[in-house]
TrEMBL record:
This is Alcohol dehydrogenase. It comes from Ophiocordyceps sinensis (strain Co18 / CGMCC 3.14243) (Yarsagumba caterpillar fungus). Transmembrane segments: none annotated. One of its GO terms (cellular component) is cytoplasm. SUPFAM superfamilies: GroES-like, NAD(P)-binding Rossmann-fold domains.
Length: 380
């Protein structure tokens, strides 16, 4: 799919001898046969959202262009999702030694430069790629030897330990880059690199037999994707959420059952269905997470995907049910590619609200207020 192009662009035009260097709008010239149209990386700078310190506002500024070295690629960002982890990063929950940093780990864009001489790289200019949470690994530690690259002892994280995608350009480590199909709209693909791969990977790695009951707690950014993935994987799906008004939407996404957590005993209702083989916790509410264990089937698993800190769980129920609690750490590049491919093949749709990069603080404020339906995406 060819990108849309503006009718005009900014250029310095010299109308005559000794005239001043002045920026003006000029008509975009389309390339003819034997020519190409190139986006110029102007004056060695680009726009990026830089967090200089803990709790600083999300503010756009000019930063120096970083060229990719060997093992790296430079990407023109087309879309970058906004995640609660970005809010946590700004609040210092990922550490204080990461600042200044550029957040953003749901990155989709096109390669504009390959580091080194490019001869040994698997990547080439023009490819559509993504940068997920997992931003790099050492290929040496035990976790890497097991293929669990996102758990690398010396792993990098886009938007945390490395500058991320809240910018016009980003440098990514080659070993962690994701192939993204060009026939998928960038704003659709971006959230699949975090929210999408997290629920997709977590559910499939539980190895629960098809037809089993999977309950999804919460119907937000993670939850609305979890419902779709679980249904398309062949599971019976129940949604646990507050309010009767969400029932029809849950059914539209593919849920077989909707349980209103504000009316009656939700875990008793889930137990009447036979109990859940998996309860996918996607809403970050520490007051309700522990109670979810009561809705598990024998040997069921409470799958925690939205971290909130300490929670209380009745260990007696775990023992009596033979149940377990497990988290899941997103995924590496291949996991992301498989999550995207599955979404394409089975029509899993992420619902997004787009914001221009300059309105990043509006997107963050909307996320904090719980307003988006269902993921905010920045468009540089």
């Amino acid at each position: 799919m060819a990108p849309s192009l503006p009718k005009t662009y900014k250029a310095v035009v010299l109308p005559s001898v000794n005239s001043p260097f002045k920026l003006q709008d000029v008509e975009l010239k389309r390339p003819g046969p034997g020519h190409i149209l190139v986006k110029v990386l102007a004056c060695g700078t680009y726009k990026a959202v830089v967090l200089p310190s803990v709790n600083s506002p999300f503010k756009l500024q000019d930063v120096e262009l970083k060229r990719p070295g060997p093992g790296h690629i430079l990407v023109k960002v087309l879309a970058c999702g906004v995640c609660f982890s970005d809010v946590a990063t700004a609040a210092g929950h990922m550490g204080h030694d990461i600042f200044p940093c550029v957040p953003g780990h749901e990155i989709v864009g096109d390669i504009v430069e390959v580091g080194g001489d490019g001869s040994s790289s698997a990547w080439s200019v023009g490819q559509r790629v993504g940068g997920p949470w997992h931003g790099g690994h050492d290929n040496r530690c035990r976790q890497c030897q097991r293929g669990q690259f996102q758990l690398c002892d010396n792993g990098a994280v886009n938007g945390v330990s490395r500058d991320g995608g809240f910018a016009e350009y980003v440098v990514l480590r080659s070993e962690a880059v994701v192939r993204v199909p060009k026939d998928m709209e960038p704003a659709q693909a971006a959230p699949l690199l975090c929210a999408g791969v997290t629920v997709f990977n977590a559910i499939r790695k539980m190895h629960v037999e098809q037809g089993a009951l999977v309950a999804v707690q919460g119907l937000g950014g993670l939850g609305h994707l979890a419902v779709q993935y679980a249904r398309k994987m062949g599971y019976e799906v129940a949604v646990l959420s507050s309010g009767a008004d969400k029932a029809s939407f849950a059914k539209e996404l593919g849920a077989h059952h909707y349980i209103n957590t504000k009316s009656g005993d939700a875990m008793a209702e889930l137990t009447k269905l036979g109990g859940a083989a998996i309860i996918v916790q996607t809403a970050p509410n520490p007051d309700v997470i522990g109670a979810l264990v009561a809705g598990l089937a024998p040997t069921g698993t409470l799958l925690s995907l939205a971290p909130v800190g300490p929670v209380q769980i009745d260990s007696r129920l775990l023992v009596m049910k033979g149940a377990s609690v497990q988290g899941w750490p997103s995924g590496h590049a291949l996991d992301c590619e498989e999550a995207i491919r599955f979404a394409q093949n089975h029509d899993v749709k992420c619902m997004v609200e787009k914001y221009p990069l300059a309105k990043v603080q509006d997107a963050i404020d909307s996320l904090k207020a719980g307003k988006p339906r269902f993921r905010c995406v920045l468009i540089p």
